[in-house]
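User: quick one, sequence for these tokens?
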């Protein structure tokens, strides 16, 4: 996939609470480094960047407004001119104006990174694909947390992550790795 100025980098929920060990056992320990590499590359090319932040409706949530957990991680603080979207459901297109913001700018290609693969990333990528955007989900710049499946069988973070990527690939998005995306930027 050639990456052009018409491709936006969508960084999902890289907030302080996602780095908290209390969030659970996760995979892809280098995901933050991959996301930072992509963010640096996007900034260098001056391509559009969208920072998505989850703001919970529950005052007890780590994502509640005013909680330290709801703030962006320092490495992913938006710069002036970078778009910020706040959401209070997993899907960053619901009640956020993001679809309109992208269309007004003629942006049809999206590169999605962040957390968690099986929740906000998957929900957002499904909607983006259904809306007609050309979506790439970066496998090594996303991560998930361990959780039991519907039958109660414990699933590792890798299993949860890989199943979410499988749910997306070929139907709603194309799954790629960060090296492939960076190589396209260098072409």
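Assistant:
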């Amino acid at each position: 996939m050639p990456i052009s100025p018409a491709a936006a980098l969508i960084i999902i929920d890289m907030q302080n609470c996602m780095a908290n060990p209390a969030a659970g056992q996760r995979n892809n320990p280098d995901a933050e480094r991959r996301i930072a590499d992509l963010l640096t590359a996007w900034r260098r090319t001056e391509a559009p960047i969208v920072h998505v932040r989850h703001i919970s409706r529950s005052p007890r949530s780590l994502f509640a407004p005013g909680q330290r957990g709801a703030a962006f991680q320092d490495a992913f603080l938006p710069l002036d001119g970078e778009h910020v979207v706040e959401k209070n459901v997993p899907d960053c297109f619901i009640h956020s104006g993001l679809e309109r913001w992208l269309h007004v700018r003629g942006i049809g290609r999206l590169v999605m990174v962040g957390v968690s693969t099986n929740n906000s990333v998957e929900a957002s990528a499904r909607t983006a694909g259904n809306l007609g955007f050309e979506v790439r989900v970066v496998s090594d710049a996303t991560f998930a947390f361990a959780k039991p499946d519907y039958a109660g069988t414990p699933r590792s973070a890798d299993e949860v992550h890989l199943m979410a990527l499988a749910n997306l690939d070929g139907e709603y998005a194309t799954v790629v790795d960060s090296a492939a995306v960076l190589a396209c930027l260098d072409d």
